[in-house]
Amino acid sequence: MLDKEFKYYLKHQNELVKEYNNRFVVIVGTKVVGAYDTFDEALFKTAEKYEPGTFLIQECTEGEEAYTQNFYSPCVYFA
Question: 35 lies in a domain?
Fold first, then answer.
């Protein structure tokens, strides 16, 4: 699940940090399709164009500190 996108990020992290430092990049396949100031902005803007689960949102910073895995699924809340 999104292995190709994460491997792309890892391979190109240094150059991506130079261009997008401290922003949230959106990767589809092996292409950066957007860069945003917040995770929420990246998620909502990208979801307008791409199906959830088909893109990776990665905070673009040096080192491994920003590496995370978030899994989202629809849920229903009953009160």
Answer: yes
